[in-house]
Amino acid sequence: MTDKQPLETRINQNLDASIENLDPTIRRRLNQARMKALEEQHKPKINWRITSAVSFAMILALSWNFIPQTSVDAEPLLAEVLQEDLEMLDDLEFIVWMSEGQDDVSN
Questions:
Q1: d(CA 69, CA 74)
Q2: Measuring CA to CA, how many Å separate 87 from each of 37, 81, 96, 98?
Q3: What's the whole-model pTM score?
Q4: What is the pLDDT of residues 51-73, one digit of tens each?
């Protein structure tokens, strides 16, 4: 097996020689493509999905403070329901008492 360094050197020399034998227009187009690729490599890439998701989360977080928080106090509602139930129970007791009284009168 041969050493890697001489093999790499020979490959590089052959590639350099093949480039020198290229047509000037092809060399110019290859060089322009290379320069364009290097420019795009240095441009910052923006991931729009992540950016929009973070923006949406920030809008929700900031707007949460501006949404009026209405807290319903459960105790008055519960007391009102219990009061209505007690009144209905009193009415039922009265109705039962009245029906018992009518049964006694009819006998």
A1: 15
A2: 84, 10, 14, 16
A3: 0.30
A4: 888 898 888 888 877 777 666 56
